[in-house]
C-alpha cells in the first residue's frame, strides 16, 4: 500500500507523502501516485492548484534506497518492470518534469528534511514555504551519486553557479534561514504555523484566475531564454488570451463594484 495520500477540496489538490518511519522516503508506489496525480491535475479543469507536502514533521528524505532497486524483486523506481538505471532515472525525471511544467500553480510546504530528489521536487514547484526547522541537502555526493531530480538545472538558476557547486559538491545540510538567504524558498514560518500558512497560500492559488496564473507561470519560466522584445510580444498575446476569459470580466467588474472577485477558473 502506498504511503502517499491525495486530497481534493475546492479546486486544491494536496499530495501528502506519509511514511514517517522513513522520513517519507519515496518508493515505487509514491512515484506512481505522484505521476498519475500530475496527469489528472493537468487534465481536470476542476483541479486548479497543487500543494505538495509531507506528514510527520518531514517533507521527504528522498528516494528509498532500500527499496526495489536493491532487492532483486523486479520492480523499478517508479513501479514498472525494472530497467537499467538510465531508464529508471529517466522515468523519475519525467515525473519531476511534469511537476515543473504543470500548467497550474504549485506550492511546496517543507517541514523537516527535503533531501536529494525530494529537494528536486521542491525546486520544481512555483512557490516554496518552509518551517523554521526545515533542512535541505543535495545528499547525492555523500552516496557517491551524481545529481538528479532536475537540480543540475534548478539549483544554478535559483542560487547561481558558484553557490550551486558548493551545495552539490560538498553536500552539506543547511536550514531554512540559509535557504531563504540564498533564494531557494519564498518564506520561513514557525513549524506550528506552516500547515495554516501553506493552506492559505494554496487556496489563494486555487481560487485565482486559473488561465491568467497559467500564462504568468509560462512567461516567467521561459523568460531566461528569450529577448526582451519577445517577452513584450508574448505578454501582448497573453493579455489577448485572458481578455476572452470569464475570470477577466469578473476581475474588472469586481474592481468597478469595489468588491473581491470570485474567480471560477473559466
From TrEMBL:
Keywords: Isomerase. Its EC number is 5.3.3.18. InterPro entries: ClpP/crotonase-like_dom_sf, Enoyl-CoA_hydra/iso, Enoyl-CoA_hydra_C. SUPFAM superfamilies: ClpP/crotonase. It comes from the Bacteria. GO terms for molecular function: isomerase activity. Pfam families: ECH_1. Belongs to the enoyl-CoA hydratase/isomerase family. This is 1,2-epoxyphenylacetyl-CoA isomerase.
